[in-house]
Structures are given as structure tokens and as C-alpha cells.
Design goal:
Blueprint: H1 2-13, H2 16-55, E1 58-59, E2 76-84, E3 87-95, E4 115-118, H3 120-128, E5 139-143, E6 155-160, E7 170-171, E8 174-175, H4 187-213, H5 217-229, H6 234-270, H7 286-313, H8 315-319, H9 335-350, H10 358-391, H11 397-408, H12 411-441, E9 447-453, H13 459-466, E10 471-479, E11 493-496, H14 499-505, E12 518-521, E13 536-542, E14 548-554, E15 559-561, E16 576-578, E17 588-589, E18 593-599, H15 602-615, E19 621-622, H16 628-666, H17 668-676, H18 681-718, H19 728-747
Parallel strand pairs: 3-6, 4-5, 11-16, 12-15
Antiparallel strand pairs: 1-8, 2-3, 2-7, 4-6, 9-18, 9-19, 10-11, 10-18, 12-16, 13-14, 13-17
């Protein structure tokens, strides 16, 4: 306790410069803790959104026989999720039963037939887009409160209908599930996001907090060495040093949490692209708060203890500025196996032997990323010292002085360049994740299809669907009757359409003649073995009055070639195209689906879905190739990663500024001595720039190479089609060159014009 009190007294009474350094340490820690709090809050935000989704999901109480109790008298609900642009819009159609149930969270009562409750965002969209009212028919009774919405931008509606209007639906007796089946981000994807954020934010953050904890490390080491020489024990020196570093880190942690609380209120109300949350969702849990309040001071204590170890063990060497020991070669140990694993995956991808065993890759790939990242940090002093020794042999005075200083203080490269080097390395990993997500979300097909079940749909409504503006082709798809008693009954699919309708759905189709059936064949697909020429298949037909007939279709010999690289076409190799004239008037196949095709332009897709909803708001529309919930999830993940990159950039730049400025201040005695010996200011500035630029340039080149290799190995193990991404290399190189230019320009003012001989006086 005595040493801790001594450290606090030295902090208060050791001059204005020491107090300024203390507040700078606290301010730097506050920035770091605020960034840390933002990263820790993301899982809590997602969990809160998923919790509200689970609380509003309807269920029916199940008895001993696994039957729903009161299903015949209970209210029924049908939930439909449709794409509204790139966002999902959920409509819950509710028909009341003979007994009332408690409303879901966010509603004071359930809507009666002809009424609806909508979310605030959907309320605004209804004002902007009048055609959207066709999808949510009814009189608006009120708004859904935040307790019933996952996030403020959610498009959600409860619509009251009668039992006769509700086709399908499930009985509901209560609301609330322990979990939701529609997570905001799937657990497997969330694990990837967490790991990526650790590389993008947490690793640079640890470096940054360590740099802040060691501000004016040389001056503090000399002061601690003086205390050791006057009789203070080694542990006492450690405690004195801990008093200042821990106090600054603790104050910074408290300030950082306060800054985060304010930032959470502001950002949650403004929102990020595709990702918004309620302010209460962003509140830190007790465990996250303790991590910030304990983790930051603990890291500061560890960094300070490492810095004070030399002053406690050999104070004379510190006071006399003895030459530092060269960095140990073991710093290369993590880098070599990490690059070995990465190179192995790259070779496997280049030779066409991409790994299939994802369980091994799920262990080796994160291990390689961590080893390469740690290896980059630990190898910087070794590489900087080796290159500086060779470059110091030049005849240039300024370059020779700079390289000799880097050779003597190889650890300075670690403090100055590590943050930005890790940022460039992490940027490559983020780019790999974004490439993989882009492969999943990209719709490369020029057309978009819509599938609707025709069960319960009248002929007039079917014709209305087929004439929706923007639809350029349509057809009915049905399967032949199959014998349920047979183990593997032969079945074929028939497409009822004219040639012009077929060309609207599949432009890449050969010549066909109307009035005759034919087979379609795609050379890139496996042909349906049941569809043999001459084979006969019955199709059961039914009209609106319930009359039944049987249509016998013989597989024709005539075939038409078609092509479809998207895999989203209605046709598949072996289908039989039947002209509509073969069907009796008013009859259509049982279990048939209507397929509509339009352009894949987002505005066209939105207009077609709106018009379909205007014809039948409760129609279930399937949109192959557009999984709107997956698109929403990918948008959230991209936003989180973009936020992580911004935080990583802030941390990396802050770490560089703090380390470079602190190093320049510590070197003022050497700069003053060189000035007194006759060195020109221009020479001193060139020395300062070279000292900063060389280790930074070496680290950035290594980070770009290792980062691109790690990105390629990640893509190889991801199972996608893209392994090598050359488009990102120019951007990374431009960023690296920009970082070097900014670092060089920022180093120029760090050499003062005024010569102060007091800086080199003997103590």
C-alpha cells in the first residue's frame, strides 16, 4: 500500500508534464474502451432482437396425444414474409376464434376482421407507396409498440381477416417461444463475424491500449530506476509504476463507458445502413461492463510491468541509457507455421484440390490467421533491425543516422507500426468474408420467377395473375399422377404453356411449334430418366365445380434444346411442354403451380409483388433466387464488418499518432545533441521520416502479402467459386501507400525548431 500511495503522490506532485501525460493516457484508454464496448454490445443487440422475435411467435398448447388443444375453436394465423426491395416485410393474417387469447407483445388487442396494426416504419412506407396498401388491406387501428418489433425499421403488420378469407393458417392459443427460428444472424455466421471482429478491432485495440499505457516509457523507466537505486525493492518499483498506469486506465475505462453510452443513444436513433436497434438493446450487460472496467486496467498493468521490469532489474543500465538487447529470433516462430498452413491451402486451391473436410479447416484456418497476425507483430522488430543494419551502410548521412537508431531501438518499430500493420492485414480478411457473402447474395440471373399454388384460386384470379404488368412469360407446372402403392413410381413434370409464353420464361430456347407437345433438353443438366419417348403418364384434372377428368400425355420424340446457366428456370431437362389447348375448357391439373417470370431489376420485382398482393394479399409467393431473410442477414453482417473496419481504422491511426508522437518526444535529447553538433533541421527531419517510414513500409508489405494469402486460403476453405481476388490488391496497395505517405508527412513537424540544451543536461 505504501508503494501505491507513493506512486499516486508522484503522479500528483511530479510536475505539469507528468499530469498531462496521465490525462493523455486516460484519454487514450477512453477511446479504446469505447471501441471495445461497441464490439461487446453487438451480440447483446442481436440477442435482444431475437428475443423479441421469439416472444411474438404463436403456438398452440399440445396435450398428451400431441394434439393442439381447442384447435377447432382457437384463432388461426398465417404468417407471410415477402421481399420489399432488399428488406423482408412480414404480414400476419389473424382470424378470431370462439374464445379470446392474450395479444402478442406490442399490441393491446388483436385486430378484428378488416382492421390492422402496423409497425411505424410500415406506416411511413404506406404513405410513400399507396400501392403497398394492396398487400396490407384493412383499416389501420394503431401502431405496434417496440416490444413487438425486432428493430425500429422492421416492416411488420397484423391483419384481421375472417376464417373464410384465411387459406391455411395454424391454430394459436398463446404467444412466446424460448427461441426463434428466424435469427437476425445465424449462429454459424455470427461465429465468423465474431472472429473477424477480433482480428479487425480487438487485436489492434490491445496494441493501442498497450501503447497508451506506455506513454513516455523511457522517462518513466528512468524515474523508476532512480527509485530502485535509492533502495526501493523490485516489487515496490512495480507497484509504484502500477499506481499510475492502472489509475489512468481505470479513469479512461469509466470515461470510455460514458462516451459509449452517449454514442449508443445517438447512433441507435440515426441508425447504420441496414442495421438499427433500440437504445436499450445497446446497453452493456454486467459482464461486458466488468470486462471494460477490469480488462483495460489489467492490460495496462501488464504493459507497465513489462516496461518497468528492466528498470527494476538493472537500474544502472536504464539511467546510463545502455544499448538494448537485440530482439530474439523466436519472434519468427508463430509466423512460419501460420504462413505454412495458409500456403498449403492456397496450393490446394490452385491445383484443384480444395479441402472437403470442413471440421479440420474450421480449426486450422482460424489457427493460421491468429499465428500470422501474432507473427506479424513479433517479427517487426527483427525484420526492422535486420534491414536497418544493411541500409545503415549507405553513404547518406540522414539515412545512416535513422537506420542506426532503428538498429539500436528495434522495439520502437513495434510500437509505431503495429496498429496500422494489423489493420491492413485484417482488411484482407474482411474482404474475404465480404467476397464469400457476395457469392451467396448475388443474383446473376437476368430473370426473376414467381411461383404461386393454384389450389383454391379461381380462373379469373389466375388470368389476373398472368396479366400483371411486368410479367413477360407464364405457365402452369404440374406433376403426373403417381401410384402411392409403388415404391418408386415413375413421374414426369409437364409445363402447360405456348411457345411465346415459354420464350418469355426461358429466352435461351430453341425453335418450337405451337399445338404439339415436345420434350425440353438441357445439355448441362441430368436428364429425367422417367421421361422416355413413348411412355404414357396420366394427369388428373379438376374444374371449379369439382368435376374431374384425366388427361393422358405420351412423352413425344420431338425435343427442343434450351439453356439456363442460372439454375432458376422453371424448366428442367426431361419436362414435357403441353399446349394449353390440350386441356378441356375450365380444367387444370391438380396440385398445379403458376409460374410467372419478369426481369430481375429490383424495381420490377417490387412492382410485380405489389400487383400480385393487390390481386390476392394472402397469396403465398415463392421467389427462387431471392431469399429475402438471407439478404437482410447479409446486409446486417456487412454493416457490422464495416463498423468494425471503421473502429479498426480509428484505433490503428490513433495508435500510430500516439506512438509516433511519444517516440519523437522521447528522442528530443538525441535530436538536441545532433543539433548542437551541427546537424541541419532538414537532415533531422529526413532522419525522423526514415525512422518511421522504413519499419512501417516493411510491416505493410508483409501485411499485404500475408493478408492476401490468408484471404485466399479462407476462400478456398469456404466452398465458394472464387479463390483469388485480384480486384482488391490495388485498393490494399493504395491504402498502404497512403498510410506511408501520411506517416511521412506527419513525422515532419515532430522535430522542433528550438534547441533546448536543458534536455541533455546530466541528472
Amino acid at each position: 500500500m505504501t508503494e501505491l500511495l507513493l506512486g499516486l503522490r508522484l503522479l500528483v506532485g511530479s510536475g505539469r508534464g507528468n499530469r498531462v501525460r496521465f490525462f493523455l493516457m486516460a484519454g487514450g484508454s477512453a477511446v479504446g474502451v469505447c471501441c471495445l464496448a461497441m464490439v461487446l454490445a453487438i451480440p447483446g443487440i442481436l440477442a435482444a432482437q431475437d428475443g423479441r422475435k421469439a416472444a411474438r411467435e404463436g403456438e398452440c398448447s399440445v396435450g398428451e396425444r400431441q394434439l393442439c388443444i381447442g384447435a377447432d375453436k382457437a384463432p388461426h394465423e398465417l404468417s407471410l414474409t415477402d421481399p420489399y426491395g432488399s428488406r423482408p416485410m412480414t404480414r400476419v393474417f389473424h382470424s378470431p376464434g370462439s374464445f379470446a387469447i392474450d395479444p402478442p407483445p406490442g399490441l393491446s388487442e388483436l385486430p378484428a376482421p378488416g382492421e390492422m396494426f402496423v409497425s411505424p416504419r410500415l406506416h411511413e412506407e404506406l404513405k410513400k407507396e399507396p400501392g403497398l396498401a394492396q398487400l396490407v388491406p384493412g383499416r389501420e387501428r394503431g401502431l405496434i409498440s417496440p416490444q413487438g418489433l425486432a428493430h425500429p425499421d422492421e416492416l411488420y403488420a397484423y391483419i384481421g381477416v375472417t376464417r373464410g378469407q384465411l387459406k391455411g393458417g395454424d391454430p394459436v392459443t398463446s404467444y412466446g417461444w424460448p427461441y426463434t427460428s428466424h435469427e437476425t444472424v445465424e449462429p454459424s455466421t455470427l461465429d465468423i463475424v465474431r472472429f473477424t471482429l477480433c482480428g479487425v478491432v480487438l487485436l489492434p485495440l490491445a496494441v493501442y491500449l498497450s501503447v497508451c499505457a506506455r506513454l513516455s516509457a523511457a522517462a518513466r523507466a528512468r524515474r523508476l530506476a532512480a527509485l530502485r537505486l535509492v533502495g526501493l525493492s523490485k516489487k515496490g518499483v512495480q507497484r509504484v509504476n502500477a499506481a499510475e498506469t492502472v489509475a489512468a486506465a481505470l479513469l479512461g475505462a469509466v470515461l470510455g463507458l460514458g462516451v459509449y453510452a452517449v454514442a449508443n443513444q445517438l447512433i441507435s436513433r440515426v441508425g447504420l445502413p441496414g442495421f438499427r436497434w433500440y437504445p436499450s438493446d445497446g446497453s452493456l450487460s454486467l459482464s461486458d461492463t466488468l470486462v471494460c472496467l477490469i480488462g483495460c486496467p489489467a492490460l495496462a498493468w501488464f504493459a507497465g510491468a513489462v516496461g518497468a521490469r528492466k528498470a527494476a532489474a538493472n537500474p544502472l543500465a536504464v539511467r546510463r541509457s545502455a544499448v538494448e538487447k537485440p530482439p530474439a529470433k523466436w519472434g519468427l516462430l508463430p509466423l512460419l507455421p501460420g504462413l505454412g498452413i495458409v500456403a498449403g491451402y492456397c496450393v490446394a486451391g490452385a491445383t484443384g484440390h480444395a479441402p472437403r473436410d470442413t471440421s479440420i479447416s474450421s480449426i486450422l484456418m482460424p489457427l493460421a490467421v491468429v499465428l500470422v497476425g501474432v507473427g506479424l507483430v513479433l517479427s517487426l522488430p527483427i525484420l526492422s533491425r535486420s534491414l536497418s543494419r544493411r541500409a545503415a551502410r549507405t553513404s547518406s548521412l540522414s539515412l545512416g543516422l535513422a537506420m542506426r537508431r532503428n538498429e539500436m531501438e528495434a522495439g520502437g518499430a513495434l510500437r509505431v507500426a503495429t496498429g496500422l500493420v494489423l489493420l491492413v492485414y485484417a482488411a484482407s480478411l474482411v474482404q474475404g468474408v465480404l467476397i464469400e457473402l457476395d457469392q451467396v447474395s448475388k443474383n446473376t440471373s437476368p430473370v426473376q420467377s414467381y411461383m404461386l399454388s393454384l389450389d383454391g384460386v379461381t380462373q379469373d384470379r389466375q388470368r389476373a395473375f398472368e396479366t400483371v404488368p411486368g410479367v413477360r412469360g407464364h405457365g402452369m407446372v404440374a406433376s403426373s399422377w403417381k401410384d402411392r402403392k409403388a415404391e418408386f413410381p415413375p413421374v414426369i413434370r409437364a409445363v402447360i404453356a405456348t411457345c411465346s409464353q415459354l420464350r418469355g420464361m426461358v429466352p435461351e430456347i430453341g425453335r418450337c411449334a405451337d399445338g404439339r407437345p415436345f420434350r425440353v433438353v438441357n445439355p448441362r443438366e441430368t436428364y429425367d430418366e422417367d421421361s422416355k419417348p413413348g411412355a404414357i403418364f396420366p394427369f388428373h384434372l379438376r374444374n371449379e365445380r369439382g368435376a374431374e377428368r384425366v388427361l393422358t400425355v405420351r412423352v413425344p420424340k420431338q425435343q427442343v434444346i434450351f439453356g439456363d446457366e442460372s439454375g432458376l428456370s422453371t424448366l428442367s431437362s426431361g419436362n414435357v411442354v403441353v399446349p394449353p389447348s390440350f386441356l378441356p375448357d375450365g380444367f387444370r391439373p391438380e396440385g398445379a403451380d403458376l409460374t410467372l417470370v419478369s426481369s430481375s431489376a429490383p424495381q420490377t420485382v417490387r412492382a410485380v409483388l405489389d400487383d400480385i398482393g393487390g390481386i390476392d394479399p394472402i397469396a403465398k409467393v415463392q421467389t427462387p433466387g431471392v431469399v429475402v431473410t438471407a439478404l437482410q442477414q447479409i446486409t446486417v453482417v456487412k454493416t457490422i464488418l464495416a463498423m468494425g473496419m471503421v473502429l479498426g481504422l480509428i484505433i490503428g491511426v490513433a495508435a500510430y499518432l500516439v506512438a509516433a508522437t511519444d517516440r519523437a518526444v522521447e528522442r528530443r535529447p538525441q535530436v538536441t545533441a545532433l543539433s548542437l553538433l551541427g546537424a541541419r533541421p532538414r537532415t533531422l527531419r529526413a532522419v525522423q521520416v526514415a525512422q518511421v517510414v522504413l519499419p512501417l513500409a516493411v510491416g505493410l508489405v508483409l501485411a499485404v502479402v500475408a493478408g492476401k494469402a490468408a484471404e485466399s486460403s479462407y476462400l478456398v476453405t469456404g466452398g465458394g467459386d472464387v479463390f483469388w481476388d485480384g480486384a482488391g490488391v490495388p485498393l490494399l496497395l493504395a491504402c498502404a501507400l497512403g498510410v506511408v505517405a501520411v506517416a511521412a508527412f506527419g513525422s515532419l513537424p515532430l522535430v522542433g525548431r528550438r534547441i533546448d540544451p536543458e534536455l541533455i543536461r546530466r541528472d
